[in-house]
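Protocol step 4 of 5: obtain the predicted structure for the target chain.
Materials: sequence only (see below). No template structures provided, no constraints applied. The aim of this step is simply to have a reference model before the mutagenesis design in step 5. Sequence pasted as it appears in the construct record:
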Amino acid sequence: MDTDGRTVVTGGGTGGEGLRIWDLRNLEAPVTKIPWAVSSMGEPVNPSINCVKFVPGMGLLVAGSSHDTAAKCFNYKAGGVVVQDFYKLKKSCFTLDVSSDKG
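Step 4 output (structure tokens):
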């Protein structure tokens, strides 16, 4: 859950759902759908996402996967723009954490 107390993020399972941003006031449909990647044909690439977390107060979220690029940081307020790919992970990413320290 983000610091606003009403925005939640979920990661997709084997069904290829990708990341989804939800507003707790209306759970009928996600506010935003963010694909993990887009293929050269323009199709979404959505592996199983193992973990996902908001970066407090920054409009960012980080997510980990078993995909080739095992972790990414997205700007969810800008529609899911990838801010950073973390390429040098030796294995799949199953857990992550962020700091609320802005220093």
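Step 4 remarks: The first strand starts at residue 7 and ends at 10. The mean pLDDT is 85.
Proceed to step 5.
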